[in-house]
Amino acid sequence: MRLLQYNSDGDFSLTEFFDKAIPHYAILSHRWGTEEVTFEDLQKGIGTNKAGYEKLRFCGEQARDDGLKHFWVDTCCIDKSSSTELAEALNSMYRWYRDAAKCYVYLLDVSALKREAGNTSTEHTWGSAFRDSEWFIRGWTLQELLAPRAVQFFSQQGKRLGDKGSLKRHIHEITGIPVLALEGAPLSQFGVEERFSWAENRQTTRPEDKAYSLLGIFGIHLLPIYGEGKEHAFRRLRKKIQKSLTVDEQNPLEPQSQSCIQDMRITDPREDKKRIENTKGGLLRDSYQWILKHPDFQQWRDDKQSRLLWIKGDPGKGKTMLICGTLDELSSSTKLRDKEATTLLSYFFCQATDDRINNASAALRGLIYLLIDQQPLLISHVRKKYDDAGKALFEDTNAWVALSEVFTSILQDPRLKSIYLIIDALDECTVNLNQLLDLISRTASTSPRVKWIVSSRNEPNIEARLRVDDTQRLSLELNEEHVSRAVQMFIDFKVSKLRLIEDDSKLQETVRDQIYAKANGTFLWAALVLKELEPIESWDVLDVLQDMPPELEPLYDRMLRQVEQLQRKDPEFCRLVLSTVILAYRPLHLLEVGALSNLPRQISSNLDNIAKLVNKCGSFLTVRENRTYFIHQSAKDFLLERAFKRIFPSGKAIIVYTMFSRSLEVMSKTLQRDIYGLRAPGYPIEMVEPPIPDPLAAAQYSCLYWVDHFLDCDKGQTTNDLIDSGSIDRFLRTNFIFWLEGLSLMKSLPDGIVMIRKLENYIKFDESPNVHAFIHDARRFAISTRSIIEEAPLQAYCSALVFAPGKSIVRQTFEELIPSWIQTKPKVETHWSAMLQIIEGHTSYVLSVAFSPDGKQVVSGSGDSTVRLWDAATGKAQQTLEGHTSYVRSVAFSPDGKLLPMLRVSNHWIIEGDLNILWLHPDYRGTCSATWNRSLVLGHSSGRTSFFCFDKSVKVIK
Questions:
Q1: What CATH class does 256-478 carry?
Q2: Does residue 471 contact residue 296 with C-beta atoms inside 8 Å?
Q3: For the NACHT domain, which residue ranges apply (predicted)?
Q4: Cα distances (Å, whole numbers) of residue 179 to 142, 172, 182, 479, 630
């Protein structure tokens, strides 16, 4: 393919590249105008006066800002006078867009200028023009939307409007393309006719192009024959599609499998990778090339016996960017980038500051999600458990056990050839790290088709658990020369982009040398300093550099001192923001920062003002798609440990209480009946799309975490909140039913039940009888109505209230919200019965049940020959155990509640594990049984009791 490149004189030149020699490049998507620059124009050095030349300039400048030297524009990178080249280009177009590092969509018919001067509205004034843009109805732009990983949209002024991720709801509404497809799911997951429907209302200038523009959507190669007509072109296309489809592609994922994938997806690691790269200023190829030539990496890649490589190093040494670069290199030969490849690649980025992705279960969910994304047939391994447990499979207390079994089963699938698995920042996995390390070590040693790369800080526990030798350990400290050289290349590139000194080569050289000397081979230090230099005038650059201390911790101290020296009240406002972001359980949306930080209303209610304040917090924080992140885990560690008294001068307790009390306030102001305007009482949750702007945006975090922050408070702080008519009592009696609706819309109702249970366990009846009574009733109400409110959120005001007992406190409090069209209500029970909930799932008699020692789980055995594990609080199925050949008459837990017993009775046998060890004589077959450790007791209809005890040895006949 030919690529454009900026010349030193400001013009463009074309260079042709082949296969692996193709460098990273950006690509333009646009609507053709009447004055486009052609291949012939560039060859002759003309066309600079054409209107289309500005598109080239825009694309080139944007690519340069993103650290890319090359870019591609269809108007001038294809020689359309050559029919052979044109045919090749049409068949390669999807691949070219797919492989682009960035895709820029230039929307000539969308203006980002505000309609009114001084308009401070946070709504997009370009929203209606965006929805009406002709770009969305052109034929070729369909593949230009779906193929690239990173699609960014720009107005006619060149202002960035957002990307495919942040605008996916808009795009879904405009195009009808499923969100899953916009998120990068393999198009093979969608049926042939569904994919055809995406192009149904699109237009092309030449009739045949309506068919040719779909070649990449179906992975088809077809020789274009202009003049054959649209109908004939579609007949040829359909015939080619039919021949190419496998049996599985002819039967795409059914709705249940799609629901399974959606429930499993906690994050898309591909989106995390893009966010990380953008946050860190872009991925520079020269900064990671050295690792690809390193003997340890090459041995890992080439030696079948080498299945684990641990990249370790101190904070800020560039481990994550090494992982990102390694992923780029490996992906080209895997199904992530090449449909014909047989190798799968899956990866995950742990992040301690985000409780969604800081645990072992999340890591497995991410890895499994990407594996299924590449090979949909693997969904069968998940469906075995998901069909019984539903979403709880991924979230309940046994999630790790179930997921590790699914993951191991996938790795053993005989249809798979080879698999690369990569996890970054193991040290930031704060929950169940040891179990994850054991799983990595075990699968690396027992699965010959699997190769692992992991990274972390230098932590002895990780080294001990992984059990690596010297050939499996790549230490960045021991490769200081390579790392320092890579840091220098990074510095060279970034200094060349400092616009205020770009014309002063001597000053650039001095700046480079000084940063080299102080960086000490630390990427993060260099990146933070270079960011500090961006707004500095050229005559101040050297003075600022002179003030920069070497090492990360002194640099963080300097950054914090700068924040403390801001004018007027800004230091206090920044301290409120930093302390809130530190204590949050996950990264906060800017509106959530405003809602929780106790900032003045002029700041907290305006998205732009919150963003400005966050940007004043030194370089500790960064914003991506309106969500706030720490620039690095070490930055949070510094603020929480070294600068604790400066961030929390009165201690953490006051900030924790503020986050709790502000949560109640923002929920009280936000929550209301039918907040999304669904109107239809049976509107199903799977069809709900959040409005834009989302009225729940500022309150989502509060809805999910207000109880956690309440429980984190010092008990003395919350005395008045706990009393009858206190803040919690007032909130629940006014907003409880609205809160349930909001949780359902967020697909988090089970989390709400857990929160209610936590409150009930914490609040003492004798201290707050009315509050305790309401919360107890609220738990009964939520548990009994969970299934219908989850299915249709507005049934919270219909079925949930109508069928609640007449004396239910929740019903009596919110009865006026029952729709007036329900004129006669059925007669219901007066009080809640002793039955908490009905748990359904077995297909035959339930013959035995048992609680776990902590009361959090229930196990049941049935005549359908299965054992099922349930969450006692919510009633959700967690796991189904199959393999019994007859009724399961006895179930129990081990004393620690972690295991079902090794011993059981089934089909006249005493069974240990999966082995029959003792056949029972008819006179000794009991009507009931119980187990404890390695003992078994049988009760008989005669009144006799039989005891058995077995040792731990292997049961064999010697």
A1: alpha beta
A2: yes
A3: 307-457
A4: 14, 6, 5, 43, 28
